[in-house]
Amino acid sequence: MKSIRRWLFSSHFLVGLMIVLIMGGSFLARRFAERATIQNRFVSVNLQIVELARAYVEIEFDRAIATLNAFKTNPVLSPDREEEANDFLASQLPSRPLVLNFGAIDEKGILFASSNPFNKGLSLAERDYFREALKGKVFISDAYLGLVTKQPTVAIAIPFNYRKNGRIHRGVLYQSFNFKALHQQLSKSGQGEVLLTDRNGTLLLHPEWSNVQRFVNLAELTPVKLALSGKSGFAGKYTSPLVRGERMGAYAFIPRSGWALATSMPSLNVMLPLKAWLFDTLLLSLLALLLAFLIAIRASQALASPILQLTGLANELAKGRLNIRIPVKRKDELGILAESINRMAGELENRFKEIRLLKDELEKRVEERTKDLSAQAAELRLSNQQLNNTVEELQHLDKMRGDFLNIVSHDLRIPLTSIVGYAEFLEESALNAQQKDFARNVLAASDRMTKLLDELLDFARMEAGKFRLSRQTIDYPETVHLAVEGMAPLAEKKKLELVEDLPPGLLVDADPDRVVQAMNNLLSNAIKFTKEGGRIEVRVRQEDGFAVTEVEDTGKGIDPEDLPHMFEKFYRVPGGGEKGAGLGLAITKSLVESHGGQVEVESEPGKGSLFRFTLPLAKEA
Which residues lie closer than 8 Å to 549 by C-beta, 6 or more apart? Predict the structure, then answer.
């Protein structure tokens, strides 16, 4: 060094001094002019990074909402099918690494299905996403700590309808984010960091996961504060409570969730190239005094070349050509910066590919969902039309049934009453024996007609749902005795032995008139099908909280093929002699079952028949 200085001072001091001053001044002027360009490039790159990160988060939101909308039509998501619902939600996790949990909440806030079996049964009624989504809107929650996973997370929730016990209820479907997995994809950018907070400034994403776990609040951090106010841009120098030194970075607001997104890197990093240039300039100036003009020019070119390459790469990235890379041959700060920008370009290229894939998948799902909804709408319109037609038919049938009741009760009963009155008058008049027999036959036929009309009216009321019981606590053996006593004259007329076995004090909650009606139907059949000199026995006993009544006769019995049809409407036993409407036993069965009892028959041809029915005892019994 000393020999060079001597040579410079001795032979070219003045020339060398002028060269150093001119070259050094010019070089420094150029570098300070490029300072603003470098800063602008830095701002541009950071803005691109934060915009790409925001687009990526928005895509994840769209994907989550599309997934939940697809899930809510699945019929397995019901409290009636908990195991299937849990299995279905658990099967969706492997293909979605950014999802921490799927869950379905009922209308009371109870988690009835979850991809994590340890979550089932938790009460989420106080969660903001449950309350807001239950109002009928898509909601993105603030940060909260998972009750089971103990991880900071955020939930996206939508309302949905589920079926329980045959009824439709309103519930909530939600997806919680796995930020621990998300930060591995978005946390780093070059030498800086990517920060993400919720609408309150609570940290959701940071390279140091422990800061997220501590629920650090950065609402007052300059870029976060600006982003939460709804702005996007580049923040100047600021300090962060998480790291030492001044920082710089871009920020953006995510409107859908109200979150803040920011990049952060040391402000010194921006000035490192300039400081290196200043040092090189001074060194080259000294070397210029020692090694001459050409060495100074070559040194300047060697220093400027990587900067120009980085500038060219930044321009290409700005144009969207993300496949371009810089060959890295240096190990200094410029080489590290080149490697970082290459790495950033690779990550951006991969993210754009993922975004395109996600966009294609979303468009495909939207198209498929639109087709499904169109088909469902067509089916629904057809079902509504069929339902309207069915309602009109039922209304028409109900009107016909009402008209039938009016006709029977008024148009048939009134003339029948007149016939009965005239027949009774003729029977009591001064007629000969044959004429009185005619009058008695008319009365008997009228009685049968009256009974037939009563049975038809009761049957029509039952079919129309207008049949009403007047239930009360009755002395059941006494009520049965009244029915037997009323039928005794018919039994005596056929010389039948009518026997009763009725224990006293048995109370039943029933309509006494309908009990007598049921007994009359069974006794009239027994009398009708039992030959003269036969026996009919009526028995009542208590068994397992029921009053059991049996009517047994010694008639001709019932063929086995007729037994299954005995209580069917309008069914009449072949060869049964006097024919009725075939409604007596059907009405008896309906009366007994409306009281909560059962009726059955046992019979063998030639050995008689046994009809048995049960009625529940009164609570006092």
Answer: 480, 519, 538, 539, 540, 612, 613, 614, 615
Residues linked to residue 84 through DSSP beta bridges, in sequence order = none
Whole-number Å distance between alpha carbons of 105 and 139 = 14
Q: How many CB atoms lie within 10 A of CB 609?
A: 24
Question: What is the spatial distance between Cα 101 and Cα 155, in angstroms, rounded to a whole number?
Answer: 9
The two structure tokens encoding residue 351: 């993210």
Angle CA 317–320–321, to nearest 5: 70
pLDDT at 112: 94
Diameter over CA atoms, the chain: 177
| Contact of 263 with 189, CB cutoff 8 Å | yes
Phi/psi class of residue 268: alpha, beta or left (left: φ > 0; alpha: ψ in -120 to 50)? Answer: alpha
55, two tokens = 């687009």
pLDDT, one tens digit per residue, over 404-429 is: 655 665 556 566 666 766 566 666 67
| pLDDT, tens only, 186-208 | 555 444 578 888 888 888 877 77
Which region, left, alpha or beta, applies to residue 216 given φ > 0 means left and ψ of -120 to 50 means alpha? Answer: beta
Q: Which of 106, 118, 110 is nearest to 78 (CA)?
A: 106
Could you tell me the pTM of the whole model?
0.40
3-state SS track over 403-434: HHHHHHHHHHHHHHHHHHHHHHHHHHCCCCHH
For 544-560, letters b (16+ CB in 10 Å) and e give eebbebbbbbbbbbbee
> Is 54 in contact with 231 (CB distance < 8 Å)?
no
